[in-house]
Model the fold of this input.
Amino acid sequence: MFARNAALALAIATLAACNVAAAQTANQPPDTMAARVEACTPCHGNKGEGTSDVYFPRLAGKPAGYLYNQLLAFKNGRRKYPPMNYLLEFLTDPYLQQMADYFADQHPALPPLVASDASQEVLQRGQSLVTRGDPQRQIPACGSCHGPALTGMEPGIPGLLGLRPNYISAQLGAWRYGTRTAKAPDCMQQVAARLTEEDVTAVAAWLANHPAPVMNAPAPKGTYVLPFACGSEPE
Done:
């Protein structure tokens, strides 16, 4: 915990300093976005690919609109995690857009799958919810919003692959209990509120154990129609 807090403190100081653009000279490091977002790498990896910490997600390759929405949510306090809230509080919105664009353009390989300790029954339940949903409980399939290949869609729907089960469970729990919210209509909160703890465990286990397709970039905007309106999807 001390090491994590120290890394976050260093990230805060570094990113705040990098927000001030400076002319490049022989005695200064390159003034590039890659250099500026080095403050993000202790938690999210050198190219946003993620780290060994199961609660810090992969950023690389997600739609820029989604990443920008999340940066704004941390800046404005809609998403509550004090280190991120403080880190972004004084950064301008255009600068946050540049950060989002940078990580959206990174495409490191997804991490190798780790064998799940979930039972076959749990994995089958997760697969059913992800691919078919549960119409009787008005739970749409995850794939109906995040795409048949679960790679998301431009400009604001994230892919669900390359994430660890603990992170997926934590985020679904945050949606369920209202500690993570989005602009109305808050579609994720509506869906997550209908999930049980067992559903969350099953979905997280199956997604984390599902191999990525060869082409894992987000689908182009308009590739498919969402089953309902979602306020977090940019126009």
Summary: The CA atoms of residues 141 and 205 lie 16 Å apart. The chain is about 45% helix and 0% strand. The longest helix spans residues 2-18.
